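[audit] Reproducing an earlier prediction to check determinism. Same input, same settings, fresh worker. If the tokens differ from the archived copy the diff job will pick it up downstream; this log only records the rerun itself.
[audit] input (449 residues):
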Amino acid sequence: MTWALVVRRWVFALLLAAAAIIAWRGGMGARATGVAIAGIDAASIDRLTIASRGSTSTFTADGLAWQQIEPYRCVADALAIRDTIDVLAALPAYQSFAADAVDPEALGLDRPVATIDLSGPGGAQRMDLGRRAPAGRAWVRIGDRIISTSDALHALVVSSDPRRWRDPALFEGLSPEIDRIALRQGDATTMLERTGQRWSMRTPIQTRADADAVGRLIDALSRVRAEAWVADLPAGDAADVARFGLDAPAGSVTVAMTTRSMKDGAVVAGTTQQAVEWGSVVERGTGLRVARRVGSPAVVSLDERALASMDPAPESLIDGRMLDAPSSTIKSIAIDGPAGRLTLERREGQWFMVDAARPDGAPAREPAVASLLVALTEARAMAMNEQGAPETLARTSISVAGFDGAVLGSLRIVREGPAGRFGVECGDGLLRIYSERMLLPLEPDQYVR
């Protein structure tokens, strides 16, 4: 054995001894425990408050369900909350120090990145989350102890946003009992109102609304979800409202619906209203806009799809049919045009044509009648305008009556030449334009067998 080898071994032994002494001295005042919070029963926790990202949210358990009660009430994600409580209850304590044995500032505990308060039948606990450390560790403070632990909890409440536990739906409990929908974009407003089972458009034009299209709109509104939470505004905070462009919203949707409840054994009807408004762009090029539910402090961001669902083109909501009546309710159809006059009458399940040559009526061609009924009650306009048809085009008038004698519709029809498109005026100021391929027999000869 050479002297060089002996010296190297002695140096290595001295280094090991020095490392042991340093480690022993560094551990003075520290003690190791199994878990950060001993004796916690995760299943019994029924209240959780998290302060993070500049906002504070409080959640309470209701059986197996959870709800947020602060800063506003809404349904909460029970699974995410339970996962967080389970992680917190199992959080290991690698080392535990007295609060005065370490520097809180050096560990990020002078200004915690998040604070968690939890309570249940067994009592309450508070945990402050400090800085993360290498190798998947982090620092927390519980009472008068500062603990080195896993960063699993940081991943849930610091890296992620606990506000995502809130119900992201902006409209709550929309039902078929909706009575009115107001869509505003800038200075333009579209107003829809329901009477019985029928929907009407009040502005920008008074006409029939397409019940199926309104139903799809209601379904789309019920599925509008927040993309992310931006801020929780204190009540009366006009400055931040203006900062987000919500003092003069770019657009809004207001829904009013009838609610019914029992009071003193009687049914009491009332009206509730929900409104969502949106303001400025979150970040140029993203398509995201800030929005809020009126009356809620939460400011959220909405993506382009959500915004598009709340801003349909008014013409997409208009009933594109000539008549708002099923063909089975039609008793007679009177046609008066350049080709002549005739009346089609339904008699005991069969259609007859009555004109000057057949005053008592004669059986009409069933394919022609079927084409006419489909055109009147099912065909959808491909376009609409408010200018009306040129006066130079010849007009054919159609009057449709029901079995009770009531007039179901009075129409004026034009065509752009023998092979052109059809234009139909239904008495509401709109010209509905239909495809040139639509089968719409208007001449008496087309009904003769």
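[audit] rerun output stored. Observation attached for the diff report: The chain has a mean pLDDT of 88.
[audit] end
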